[in-house]
Amino acid sequence: MEDDETWERLRDLRCDAVQGWLVAAAMPPDETTAWLLARGSRGWQRPAAALPAAAVEE
Question: What are the residue boundaries of the EAL domain, all occurrences included (predicted)?
């Protein structure tokens, strides 16, 4: 996933897992594991400041 349009479409489809440059740059496996563990069971959450205005109002 690399753009807001795709993010919003997947969100609307209730997709609960995504991968791509919008989330994080490519990284080696050990860094990926640390990155995931640092986010806990909730996983990555898109910062509200990065969301389009319409999505924040919902």
Answer: 1-40
